[in-house]
Design goal:
mainly alpha; 88 residues; elongated
Length: 88
C-alpha cells in the first residue's frame, strides 16, 4: 500500500497526478495478486479458509484503492476546472 496523505489541497496538479500514477500501479498490482490467489485456490495450493482470509484482505485493499482514486479524481477536477465567468 503506497504512502498516503489525507490533504491534497496544498499540492500542485503535477504532484496529485504522481499520486494518481502510484495508485493506478497499486491497483494493477492488486488485480495481479487477486488473479494469482484465485489460481492458487483452483490448483488446490491453499485451503478454502486461507483463500477466504486472503480474499477478504484483498477486497479491503481494493476498496481502499478505489476510495483513493475517487479522492484523487476529485482533486484533479478541482485543479483543472476553471470557474464560470459571470455575465455582466
Amino acid at each position: 500500500m503506497p504512502l498516503w496523505r489525507d490533504d491534497f489541497s496544498t499540492l500542485s496538479l503535477e504532484e496529485v497526478l504522481k499520486y494518481q500514477i502510484e495508485n493506478r500501479a497499486w491497483n494493477k498490482e492488486l488485480r495481479g495478486l487477486s488473479t494469482a490467489l484465485v489460481n492458487r485456490r483452483l490448483a488446490n495450493e491453499i485451503s478454502q479458509d486461507d483463500y477466504l482470509t486472503k480474499r477478504r484482505i484483498a477486497l479491503e485493499q481494493s476498496a481502499e484503492c478505489q476510495r483513493r482514486a475517487a479522492i484523487l479524481d476529485s482533486q484533479i477536477s478541482r485543479c483543472t476546472v476553471r470557474p464560470l465567468l459571470r455575465a455582466n
